[in-house]
Amino acid sequence: MGPGGACWRGGGVPRGLKRWLSSSAPAPRVCVVGSGPAGFYTAQHILKHHGGARVDIFEKLPVPFGLVRFGVAPDHPEVKSYGAEDNRVLGIPGENLSGVYSARAFVGWYNGLPENRDLKPDLSCETALILGHGNVALDIARILLSPLHLLRKTDITDGSLAALACSKVKRVWLVGRRGPLQVAFTIKELREMINLPGARPVLNPADFTGLENAIKDAPRPRKRLTELMIKTALEKPGVKPMEAQAAAPREWGLKFQRSPQEVLPTADGRRARGIRLALTRLEGWGDSAKAIPTGDVEEVECGLVLSSIGYRILPLDPAVPFDTQRGVIPNSSGRVEGVPGLYCSGWVKRGPTGVIITTMNDSFDTAHSVLEDLQGGVLDMSTSREGFGAVESILRSRGVRPVSFSDWEKIDAAEVARGKAAGKPREKIVDPQEMLQLIGH
Ligand code: NAP
Question: What is the pTM of this model?
Answer without folding.
Answer: 0.89
